[in-house]
Amino acid sequence: MNTYSDQLASKEELRRISRARRRAQFMRRLPGDIVKLAIVILFVFPFYWMISTAFKSYIESIQTPPTLWPHTFTLENFSAIGEMNIDLPMYFKNSVIITATTIVLQLLIMIPAAYAFAKRDFPFKGVLFGVVLLAFMIPGQLTYISIYLMMAKAKLLQTLWPQILPFGANAFGIFMLRQSFKQIPEEILESARLDSASEFQIIMRIMLPMSKSAMITIAMFSFISIWNNYFWPLVMTTNEAVRPLTMAIQKLRDSGDNAIRWNVLMAGNVILVAPVLVIYMFASKKILKAFAYNGLK
Amino acid sequence: MYNKNAERRRVLKREWKNWALSYAMILPAMVFFGLFCIYPLCNLFHLSLFRGNVRNPYKSFRGIQNFVDLFTKNPDFVPALKHTAYYTAVVLVLLISLSVLCAVWLSKDRKLNHFAQSAIFSPHLVASISCAFVWSWMFSSEIYGLFNTILNAIGLKSVRWLDQPSTAMNCVIVMNVWKNIGYYSLIIMSALKAIPTEIYEAADLDSASPIRQFFQITLPMLSPQLFFLLITITTGSFMVFDSIRVMTNGGPGNSTQVLCTWIYEYAFLNNNSLGLASAGGVVLLLILVLITILDFRGLERKVHYQ
Predict the structure, then answer these.
(1) What's the CA gap between B306 and B294, in Å, rounded?
(2) Which of A162, B16, B255, B305 makes a 20 to 30 Å CA pair with B245?
(3) CATH number of the domain encompassing residue B105
(4) Domains contained in chain B, number
């Protein structure tokens, strides 16, 4: 009994000491932390500025000095986009179709290729994998002229295909998925083969369920890069009907009469950025981990 | 004897079947790479030998005349090369030094640091066109532009940020450093965490100063990642397009014209200069290959792999 209360007392004391120590640490860190916080706020300020401008009236957006937050909160900038003869829902729909189709196509091509490179043996495997790595390094800025001519020849320029097909084979995805497949132990595959499972069944029942996180990471990378893509639609399309959201945003600026209406332009940008930022808010830890891994390999 | 042969044939047949299945699995990927990577790259060399436009790319054969013209006749190409080199050099120095600084600064496992990390990373996920637009808005030369308001408030004169040749490129650089620093510091940071703490403890025992520890331990241990940064930043910077196109469109004058905007302009906007643009593309490719080789050569000995 006695020893127990002694322990209690010492525990209480320990707690008090640790609390005091923590407070001292807090005070010592406080100045540095305030500087840190200030820099972080400065860093995300452009996003705040974009959002706050998007909800300001035109008069308020060009007033001097500018207001830090919208004094008269308005949604009219979003409806103004429609009045400028820019069919935002159509661009949005194009963006969604292009992104979704590309990701599905990428998965269909990527999964068997990654499986063959990870788990099967065949002649010239190294050379062929070299092709994948080469493709990984060739930027679109060097290939778009030829691809444009190719698409023109195939009479596909008036469709969404020129924005989908060139990204069909995702070299980075094949590389990453192969890495993930390689970590699955050979014994599991062998026992499945003994049960006379076909390669298709092995992929569907074993490989894919065990590489879920790699698949999600790859799909997320693809989503971000395709959704945000500006260069490719700019060089591949001539027709408004097949253009994605990024091109609509550019049109918002170019179709202003004389001066750019920054408040409307920022409203458009909010629409473009929102899906990505919302996903990021919910999965920031996972996304950071995926990007960090990407640099370490 | 006969049985053995039949057996061998059966094994061979099964092997062939296996190979065929493997090739079938990688075939779609290879077809796509061939169509959209290898062929276009080879075709770029072919195109660069002709004079033509998008409708008729092979109007007349010019041989290497296009390449000669690039460096002797064309008024914009050499300046574009210089601007790209300037952009790359400044971005490289800023991004590497700032991201290492940022990573060391945020490396302790604390809630505040995790929050700061995810905030600083966020621009990397946002479309470059949106980032470019927000910064153009803040860099507005009008009196109501955000940066000019701040300058005026502390008694300085307005600056015509993106509208004068002397500052335009630097504004684009600031925007791109802001956008990418989070990504590169993330990579450096995860490498920092992999450095064994024993090394620092040993250095502490030898009473090495923190600055000395940074230069003698941290930097050498980070060299594989610094090397990765060096290659991705240089090659990426030579490819800069979106931010330039949105923020300055090559102007004012041609003070921010870079290689990729130059190629785009000559390929699609100017008349009959598709061959010239392709020649510019070939030059860009050669530069990229050269950079990669130089980086590998120069750093092979210095990089310390664990």
Answers:
(1) 22
(2) A162
(3) 1.10.3720.10
(4) 2
A230:B37 CB<8 A:
no
In chain A, what residues touch B25 (CB-CB under 8 Å)?
A: 112-113, 115-116, 120
A128:B30 CB<8 A: yes
Q: Do residues B155 and B245 share a domain? A: yes
Residues 120-179 of B with CB under 8 A from A: 120-131, 133-135, 137-138, 140, 142-144, 146, 149, 153, 178
A33 has a chain B CB within 8 A of its CB: yes
Query: Rounded to an integer, what distance in angstroms lies between the CA atom of residue A183 and that of residue A120?
Result: 14
For A53-111, how does the pLDDT look when each residue is reduced to its tens digit (9 = 90+)?
999 888 888 887 788 888 888 888 888 887 888 888 999 999 999 999 999 999 999 99
Rounded CA separation B153/A273 (Å): 31
| B38 and B136 co-located in one domain | no
Residues B141 and B212 placed together within one structural domain of the fold: yes
Indicate the burial class of A85 (C-beta count within 10 angstroms; 0-12, 13-18, 19 or more). exposed
Tell which wins on pLDDT, A289 or A149: A149
Asked if residue B119 and residue B41 are part of one domain, the reply reads no
Reported pTM: 0.89
Q: Is residue A154 within 8 angstroms of chain B, CB to CB?
A: no
- The strand ranges marked E within chain A are none
Cross-chain residue pair B281–A108, CB shorter than 8 Å = no
Q: Is the pLDDT of residue B59 over 60?
A: yes
Contacts (Cβ under 8 Å, ≥6 apart) of B46: none
Helix axis angle, B146-153 to B128-138, nearest 10° = 30
Domain hosting B9: range is 2-47
Q: Which backbone phi and psi does B51 adopt, to 5 degrees?
A: -115, 130
Question: What is the average per-residue pLDDT within A41-51?
Answer: 92
- In this structure, is residue B58 part of a structural domain? no
Pair B41, B71 in one domain: no
Q: Compute the radius of gyration of chain A from its Cα atoms.
A: 27
The class that CATH gives domain A85-255 is: mainly alpha
Instruction: Decide if pLDDT at A5 tops 70.
Output: no
Put simply, the answer to whether B126 touches A253 (Cβ < 8 Å) is no
Q: Would you say the ipTM is above 0.90?
A: no
pLDDT at B306: 44
Chain B residues 12-51 with CB within 8 Å of chain A = 18-19, 21-26, 28-30, 32-33, 35-41, 43-44, 47
User: How much is the mean pLDDT over chain B?
Assistant: 89
**Is the CB of residue A132 less than 8 Å away from at least one CB of chain B?**
yes
What region, left, alpha or beta, does residue A241 occupy, with left being phi > 0 and alpha being psi -120 to 50 degrees?
A: alpha
Domain boundaries, chain A: 85-255
CA distance linking residue A71 with residue B162, whole number of Å = 29
Give the containing element (helix H, strand E) for B299: helix B274-300
Task: Report the pLDDT value the prediction gives residue A3, as an integer from 0 to 100.
Answer: 59
Is the pLDDT at A8 greater than 80? The verdict is no
Residue B40 shares a structural domain with residue B141: no
Q: Domain for residue B99, yes or no?
A: yes
